[in-house]
């Protein structure tokens, strides 16, 4: 298995966007950050703000992760000021999880980030996502801050 990151095309972007908005809204609900009735609207607005020009938004690099001719997931890197990058999303499609694609994609995006002149990469992971947290730790990502909440209901 050898993956490659392919610049995302408009068709793939539309499919990704439909999935991503719903998935992000559900993750925000699960984390207790957003209420269910507002989550889809807020997620839609956030994606419009972050990617106003879709795949051609300046400073944003969206890739389809491929193994041969199979689409196995996506990864989204943003270039920030001060030589920093931020991975907004990495998602391996359900049938391909647990096979090492995420780790390979993360290593591949680090190479691209270096080519862009970036010296640091950040990302966000939901506290309940143990699988992703373990992956990032094995790749030497370290926690830089932790947000905690308690429901008083």
Task: Give your account of this protein's structure.
The protein is of the alpha+beta class and 153 residues long. 39% of the residues lie in helices and 24% in strands. The chain has helices at residues 10-30, 36-50, 101-115, 130-138, and strands spanning 3-7, 60-67, 70-80, 84-92, 120-123. A 5-stranded mixed beta sheet has the order 1-2-3-4-5, sandwiched between helices. A hairpin with a 2-residue loop joins β2 and β3. α1 crosses α2. The chain is globular, with a radius of gyration of 16 Å. The model has no long low-confidence stretch (mean pLDDT 92).
Largest sheet: number of strands, sense, barrel closure: 5 strands, mixed
Average pLDDT over all residues: 92
Helical region count?
4
Beginning-to-end CA distance, first to last residue: 48 Å
Could you name the key traits of this structure?
alpha+beta; globular; 153 residues; five-stranded mixed sheet; single chain
Quick gist of this model?
The protein is 39% helix and 24% strand. It has helices at residues 10-30, 36-50, 101-115, 130-138; strands spanning 3-7, 60-67, 70-80, 84-92, 120-123.
SSE map:
Layout: E1 3-7, H1 10-30, H2 36-50, E2 60-67, E3 70-80, E4 84-92, H3 101-115, E5 120-123, H4 130-138
Parallel strand pairs: 4-5
Antiparallel strand pairs: 1-2, 2-3, 3-4
Helix pairs in contact: 1-2
């Amino acid at each position: 298995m050898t993956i490659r990151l392919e610049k995302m095309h408009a068709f793939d972007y539309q499919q990704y966007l439909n999935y991503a908005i719903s998935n992000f809204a559900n993750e925000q609900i699960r984390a207790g950050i957003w209420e269910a009735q507002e989550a889809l609207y807020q997620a839609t607005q956030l994606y419009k703000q972050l990617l106003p020009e879709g795949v051609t938004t300046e400073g944003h690099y969206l890739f389809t992760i491929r193994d041969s001719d199979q689409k196995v997931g996506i990864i989204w890197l943003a270039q920030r000021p001060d030589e920093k990058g931020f991975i907004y999303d990495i998602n391996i499609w359900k049938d391909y999880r647990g096979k090492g694609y995420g780790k390979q994609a993360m290593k591949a995006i680090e190479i691209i980030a270096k080519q862009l002149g970036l010296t640091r990469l950040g990302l966000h992971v939901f506290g309940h996502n143990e699988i992703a947290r373990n992956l990032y730790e094995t790749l030497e990502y370290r926690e830089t801050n932790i947000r905690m909440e308690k429901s008083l209901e």
